[in-house]
Amino acid sequence: MANLIPVSYKLLKGMNESLVIRIIKEKGAISRADIARYTNLTPPTVTNITKKLIKDGVIVEDTMGESRGGRKPVLLKLNPGYFYVVLAHISSNHLRLDVSDLDTNVLASKRIKLSDKSPEAVLKNLFALYRQMVDQSGVPEDKIAGIGVAVHGLVDSERGISLYAPNLGWRDVNLLESIKAELGIEVCVENDVRAMAMGERWYGAAKGVDNFLAVKVGYGIGASAVVDGKLYTGITHSSGEIGHTTIDVNGPKCSCGNYGCLEAMASERAICETMSKRLKLGEKSIIKDVDDVDIEDVYRAANIGDELAIDVIKRISIYLGIGIANLINLFNPQLVVLGGNIIKVKDIVKPVLEDVVKQRALDNTYRGCKLVMSNLGDDATIKGAHALILSHLFDM
Fold first, then answer.
1. Is the domain of 111 the same as that of 72?
2. InterPro entries per the record (predicted)?
3. Average pLDDT of the segment spanning 89-112
4. Containing domain of residue 125, as a range?
5. Do residues 148 and 8 lie in contact, with contact meaning Cβ atoms separated by under 8 Å?
6. pTM of the full predicted structure?
7. Assign residue 93 a region: left if phi > 0, alpha if psi is -120 to 50, beta otherwise?
8. Do residue 193 and residue 240 come from a single domain?
9. Cβ-count burial of 88 within 10 angstroms (0-12 exposed, 13-18 middle, 19+ buried)?
10. Is residue 1 in a domain?
11. How many angstroms separate the CA atoms of 72 and 218, rounded?
């Protein structure tokens, strides 16, 4: 399907317009004088660029700013309806798809369980959901400029290929080509934890922070490093596999084949397995299904004071703290953001993590580093997909 969106934004590559748009997106409503200050462009250059961007409909004049001694400045912001984007998150068990404007206002959203995880079935679901959500949003299809896709596992973001997604059973799935051929729009594909990191940097706990780590704990465990404001991916797009660092050489066998990996000892899968074992040994809990423990039941039990659930979560938090301390020693970051489903029990997890990290991270590397919980919750990855597709479209 041909895309009929105005193409002026595609002509911004390599030009100062991209820089101006990035500053407006990062800072929110902002004056022309502040744009000049942040970009080091001259005021006349900023005036010319913003005049063109207003004419093209990319940005709009907003409210009046605070005066610094003269007239109140007119603030500029992105035009939320200049075009729209679709955001997809393919996790181990679910597919979520949102339709959003440039301000991350969600116009339609749906999450479905993946019963068939083959690439063909997942893409078929994605295309059907895409058309359903675009129709539900009321956005004309020719106003959809692109789709940002965050997917579990190793991802070559340059080529848009899912290299290896173990929980989906995928190897070398070219998502970019398949999606672009079907939908005829721009496509950006990234690993879900790296997408989460960008969501936190643009919209969440790491907003404006150039050097930080994001750690996501769910069915698996992953990490992402942002260095000097850019994602670090590694030479084979495999960075951040903290879940497969060894915590205990005598620990349980991991899905990767090694023993004592962090993921085998501190993921949600590990929480459920530990709960099941201890329940079978006769320990008391409000959870009664000893053979099929559900992580949401564990979190609910812990949050209402179930002693066994709390103890299990505290114990896995010790292992998680060791893994995070190792990362801090390696990267010396300004900030570590913990996200994923585990933040549902953040009041139990965070004090343990802080104690362990304080004990195990070197004083010099940990000094000045903050450990924070994601404030985006389940939306961190999808907001990261938003950040990534906008960066791609505006060449930011």
1. no
2. ATPase_NBD, HTH_CRP, ROK, WH-like_DNA-bd_sf, WH_DNA-bd_sf
3. 95
4. 84-200+380-394
5. no
6. 0.88
7. alpha
8. no
9. buried
10. no
11. 48
* 146 domain residue, yes or no: yes
End of a domain among 78, 94, 118?
A: 78
List pLDDT tens digits, range 118-174: 999 999 999 999 999 999 999 999 999 999 999 999 999 999 999 999 889 999 999
Check: CB of residue 114 under 8 Å from CB of residue 95. Answer: yes
First to last CA, the chain: 26
- 217 contact partners, CB below 8 Å, separation of at least 6: 266, 267, 268, 320, 338, 339, 340, 341, 342
Is 285 a member of any domain?
yes
Q: Which of 93, 89, 76 is nearest to 23 (CA)?
A: 76
Q: How many folded domains does the chain comprise?
A: 3
Q: Provide the Cα torsion 224, 229, 233, 235; round to 10°.
A: -150
Residue 58 belongs to domain with CATH number: 1.10.10.10
pLDDT in tens, 197-235: 999 999 999 998 999 999 999 988 999 999 998 999 999
What is the chain's length? 396
Token look-up 């960008």 returns 198
HSE-up of 197 (CA within 13 Å, CB side)? 26
Pick from 78, 97, 125: which residue ends a domain?
A: 78
User: Cβ contacts of residue 367 below 8 Å, gap of 6+?
Assistant: none
Q: Which of 154, 187, 168, 215 is nearest to 346 (CA)?
A: 215
Helix (H) or strand (E) segment spanning residue 249? none
Nearest Cα residue to 170 out of 178, 296, 223, 99: 178
Task: Give SS3 for 179.
Answer: helix
Which contacts of 205-211 are long-range, i.e. CB under 8 A and separated by 24 or more positions?
205/335, 205/337, 205/372, 205/373, 205/374, 205/375, 205/376, 206/335, 206/337, 208/26, 209/334, 209/335, 210/334, 211/331, 211/333, 211/334, 211/335
Classify residue 60 as exposed, middle or buried by CB count within 10 Å of its CB (0-12, 13-18, 19+): middle
Q: Which amino acid is at 297?
A: D
